[in-house]
């Protein structure tokens, strides 16, 4: 049997490496931008066609390359930053392994125009499928102009798996921001199909963050500054009120390199403990400075995962410095121990004594005697203008035989069909009235055959609205109420593009938006169930849903839109309901397909069984 092991050709080896380094157009943008920063550029332009599928062009004004260096840069593992293995532990630049350009050139057509300051003429290269096709001297500005065309043209299977332009553009803007946030001293611009997405001038770090994520973020940034013998931490965290339920504004950088670190993220969450709920995620932009010898950046192909020698110590440092920032800006509540427990009241400025209120009551009232406790005046009451939270709303009439009314109602919460059958039977009868009690401004309580039914009023309303909005979407029903004074919604460039992509779907529900300046929308109309302020909250909520959704942005579009609208439009807790309103909500809930749970799986109905109550009195 002959020898079977052989060396792969360079072109094939480079394509295998490209599978790790060049996963999509965003990977190319990241690598070329980092190379431009390493070249000392003060201005970097990124120009795209069809979200990078047609071409990606990165132009910088860095130091450029000589004719020999421009050729060598495309050889695998050709680098100016590593001479021995020990150099891997003293990395202070972005790229260092010499894989990126070789990998890109193996799966795309690449044109390079580059010139150094001291050279009279520059160099032009054309490389395709890892092969140098053309080289000549040209006249060009100082710096490097890199053009990558027809990504994955020679690997159709890889190109087939590229996502829609919208999804690929989201990935590109993510990588663009990660690089731009490391170098506020460099100006950056991003253009796709002749449409400018970002244009960041040279600025300070705070202004760069504000330029990237919108002016409204400026007032929410809290400065963090901490220096120790292990690590120094600088940057910003956001006020607790800015926390969200999805990821998107969580940035760690070490020695000006973006990194992902779940352990350090837990430290941030711990620092916010008691200030935000468990399902909320704080926003932060934190920059670590450490000795390169105590970290290893070479453990992941994209160098986004980094190992530290003493992560436990850095964890505690991070918790302490973030807590200090929150406390310094009076985000955490202050306690005045000198006045705690003392009465605090203002003396009346007038000498006139207030009148003592008179209270009328019924001496013979017996709450356990139905005949004496309900009078004509009580039975004909009108709903008051305001009632304190937790006050009980009583029924106008009470049937004499609850067992007969609810006979046949199953004990299990999941037996929805039985409940529906009972409700339909009562509607046909038309004579009986169901009694409801509102408890603590949160629960609607009503007796059933097996015990007491508790209904979470906000969740019940969410379920009703969710199915109503789904129905509207399914039938393409357009409805909306105009605003006399349209509210504006300022967004980051990424979010602005995202909303533009879903405008037709929002219009179905009654949202009418119009562009109002750069990265800003005016909200001209909202769904009829929403106030205009709630409409703005719903749009922000929808954006958060979509920003971190894998796959097509339209996957489960109807459910996500309907759920966000329902949550925003549902009545709040502590909103007092009269008997008729509770009855209407009850009927609407049991007309739903799935009345027992909200769209995100939370319980709406619970039955306190008779036997459980009886066990209390044994």
Describe the model.
It is a single chain. With 618 residues, the protein is an alpha+beta fold. The chain has three domains: 10-202, 2-Layer Sandwich (Heat Shock Protein 90); 206-295 and 309-328, Ribosomal Protein S5, domain 2, CATH 3.30.230; 387-618, 2-Layer Sandwich (Ribosomal Protein S8, Chain: A, domain 1). It is built from 20 helices and 22 strands. Strands 5-4-3-6-2-1-7-8 form an eight-stranded mixed beta sheet. A five-stranded mixed beta sheet has the order 9-10-13-11-12, sandwiched between helices. A four-stranded antiparallel beta sheet has the order 16-17-18-22. A hairpin with a 2-residue loop joins β11 (250-254) and β12 (257-259). The longest helix has 18 residues, at 311-328. It is elongated, with a radius of gyration of 33 Å.
For the report, how would you describe the main beta sheet? Answer: 8 strands, mixed
Q: Give the CA-CA distance, first to last residue.
A: 87 Å
**What is the number of E strands?**
22
CATH structural fold name of the largest domain:
Ribosomal Protein S8, Chain: A, domain 1
Helical element count?
Answer: 20
**Low-confidence residue ranges:** 332-350, 370-416, 423-432
User: What amount of the residues lies in strands?
Assistant: 15-25%
Q: Report mean pLDDT, rounded to a whole number.
A: 78
Q: Percentage of helical residues?
A: 25-40%
